[in-house]
Automatic annotation (TrEMBL):
It comes from Fluviibacter phosphoraccumulans. PANTHER family: CRP FAMILY TRANSCRIPTIONAL REGULATORY PROTEIN (PTHR24567), FUMARATE AND NITRATE REDUCTION REGULATORY PROTEIN (PTHR24567:SF75). GO terms for cellular component: cytosol. Residues 176-249 form the HTH crp-type domain. The keyword Transcription regulation applies. This is Transcriptional regulator.
Amino acid sequence: MTTKQEPQSCKKNSESAGKGVSIDFTEVKAHCQHCDLNPVCHPPGLNTDEMDSLDQWFPTRRRLKRGESLYEIGEAFNAIYAVRSGFFKTVLPSPQQRDQVTGFQMTGEILGMDGIGSGFHACQAVALEVSEVCLMPYGNVEELASNLPNLHAHLNKLMSQRIVHDQSAFKILANLRSESRLAAFLLDLGKRFSTLGYSPNTFVLRMTREEIGSYLGLSLETVSRIFSRFQEDGLVDVQTRHLQITNPEALSEIAAGKNSH
């Protein structure tokens, strides 16, 4: 499903947030018709002519190295992004405290919606590994509605799913104990991997435990302690960042708050 080889990047100057900065990226022509993520990004039933025209709506792809920012907080909003491969975190940087991670986005998901309301991005998006996004200039959306209404409706569906997912995450953070938060987080990751055709119980954690803690409102020590407890109880098997959920039923009970450790 994802790109198997890490793409090469090159140096290019770009205007960001109204000022010239130097950013490492490669922009290449997107070829939607032959993309592995076609079934995820596009609705079924598009005819050949419609598929051929997709390149004009998603004109470029952008490749980022690990640690590279897709956009910065306060940067002018002009596009939304579909993650073609890789993994991202959205974050609110803080000079005094640790950065606040607000979400993780993976292959097949949408980035950039935080800038729609104000016209400026409200957070920073950072690649957690070599990643690639398909860029859609937001000015194309209204034109897309009249030319390809099925695709426009599907794009709205993807954005709606992102909003619903974020609302569910906020509910978890507000109501669950620390063990339940981590259990729910791992199960949610597995569910998202499953959507792409991967195993929901075996995957690699692209984020650090510090980043998981920031997202869940937990300290690094608490996250590490709960991981160790889950492993001791036979719920998960963790080898560095390779994780296997060995007892998904029991982990689901903890996520639901039924079985507190």
